[in-house]
Design goal:
Layout (H helix, E strand, L loop, with lengths): L5 E4 L6 E4 L5 E5 L2 H7 L4 E7 L3 E4 L2 E7 L2 E6 L5 E6 L5 E5 L13 E3 L24
Parallel strand pairs: 3-10
Antiparallel strand pairs: 1-2, 2-5, 3-4, 4-9, 6-7, 7-8, 8-9
Length: 134
Amino acid sequence: MSSATLRGGCLCGQVRYEARGPAVNVRACHCRACQRASSAPFFVRAVFPREAVTWTGEVLAYRSSARLNRLSCAVCGSLVFGAPIDRPQFIGVSVSTLDHPDALSPDMHIWTSSKQAWLRLDDGLPQYPEGVAY
């Protein structure tokens, strides 16, 4: 995983962030909550140590489950971060909000039990029917 500083932001530019150092992991999540939150068939996020990510701009938090707050731009609503309640030392960054989204790629697929039936996963990455530990 890249150890460079990655930059990104929301659709309108009100939220801008930097993520420094290597990601702990990069996962494509196919759970229904991620599908709904991202308005897409799956959500790819890169987890970083919380102290490695800084941002400017106002975000709104939505507690989408017992263990996760989703942080979105207060202006345009873009989903930018996932903040685990049970692991506050980490924060997830939406890979699609990176200025260069090809800088990171997933290392696995999780919650494939909720994967869209029409979606074919032939990238050779490990697939897990549910979540896995950090």
